[in-house]
Amino acid sequence: MVSIHYKPAEDFTPDPVPVLESNRNLGYSLREAVADLIDNSISAAASVVELHLRWNEGEPYLTLTDNGKGMDKDTLVNAFKLGSSNPLEERDPDDLGRFGFGMKTASISQARCLTVASLDEGTETPVARALDLDFISGLAKPAWKLRHVDWEAVNFELPLGAKHGTLVRWDAWDRAPQEKNDFMQLTGELENYLALCFHRFIGQGQLTIINQGIKIKAVSPIPEHSQQYSTTPLPDYDCRQTAWTLQHPNYWEEDYSQSRQFNSYTLFEGLERQQGIYIYRCNRLLTPNGGWLGLVQPTNNAKLSRVVVDYPNNADHLWSLDITKTNAEIPYIFKKAIREFLEKSRLQSIGKVNRRAKMEERKIRGSIGDGLIWKQELNPELQCWQYRPNLRHAVFQHLIDENIISEKELKKIFELLSSNLPVAKIIENNDDDPGRHDRMSRNDKLTIVEKEVALSILQSAQKCTTRAEAMTALMEIEPWCYHEKELQQFFDERL
After folding, report:
1. Fewer CB within a 10 Å sphere, N or C end of the chain?
2. What number of other Cβ atoms are within 10 A of residue 257's Cβ?
3. Is residue 33 helix, strand or coil?
4. How far apart are CA 136 and CA 113, in angstroms?
5. CB atoms within 10 A of CB 477
6. What domains, with CATH codes, occur in the chain?
7. What is the pTM of this model?
8. Helix (H/G/I), strand (E/B), else coil: 293
């Protein structure tokens, strides 16, 4: 093999000031930045992370302390280097790092000064350094230099009982809210985000995150009582997908949609908008907002559908994970398998959302729709849907037959209702809080009025047929077709 010798050329070490200033705009939000710091704590085998946000009379700062394995001076200095680890190298299966940028880029995206103090196992004195953008730009000749820091000056205190660990502190926090009330809201927003992203670690007892002195409770995107109906490995690597269908809002024990407490049912965007794929890398949730990632369109019918995808860090190159570790592109070799899986998941959700419609179709089949209370029609002139009360419904026919109202007058009333149905308001309310409409259709039990009307219709029908035949006819009509046992018991008591 012929060896090729190259002559050394020009040095192209970049000016630190524009590089660092540019790295402040890689797209981190505050909560993503803090989550990236916790990734480092987990990689350092920490079991406790303590987080504090201090208003400090308008000079805010943030501290994050863990009981991880800590760092000596050389390790600490290396940790400040951009690209301190090679993403192509094999890494520990539990390592949540990727590019070796996280601690630095996450921190300077929010604050101009990042200070890290650390105490590793076997040493007695912590070591501290700061990546201070104003210090670097203020040098006679800007250079890649850290600022020496007295560890006592940053109030370095480890979590209770810890013998080693690390403190990360943000000062010159210029991207924090300028108003105190806005700043104080960050605590709750941050708590919710961390509760979701690290819920597996918290829930399994591997990690305790203490935010402003309060332990964060795990919140999973898959609530309790959800139905797991399929799990499938993805091609190559140790990747798998699991499909879930959430419990229908009718059967929630509480009205979670109105709860002020962050919960697994509605999450950030609400039940309807949180449908979709939740990707985990090494048990860390990367996509807390769900969504179908462009594979399918979100729909109301699929709002109960969730698909969980798990993959290890040795598949990072397939998933095109970005620096913020919040966005991953689904690998082409997985797209077909995931798309097929998603369709099955959506069908499961549709089955739950439309379970009454399916029951209606099954019980009223063959009755040409006369058992329906409302009929849907397409207006050919306006090319729009219209919804009209069904004049042929047994209740309305009973009113006409008993001369309670004439068919002509009933038609006028129905025309008035159809022309003034508040469709726009229904759509608006559904967009704001779809769970309210789900609960409206629960109808677990018939009202006494509905039972009495059914009895009246049954008795009229029995004048020219048997009770069994009359009951069969009644079971082809809304709303009674959903409550056969309840009606049978009522009739037995009355007849």
Report:
1. N
2. 19
3. helix
4. 10
5. 21
6. 16-215 (3.30.565.10), 227-353 (no CATH), 363-494 (no CATH)
7. 0.74
8. coil
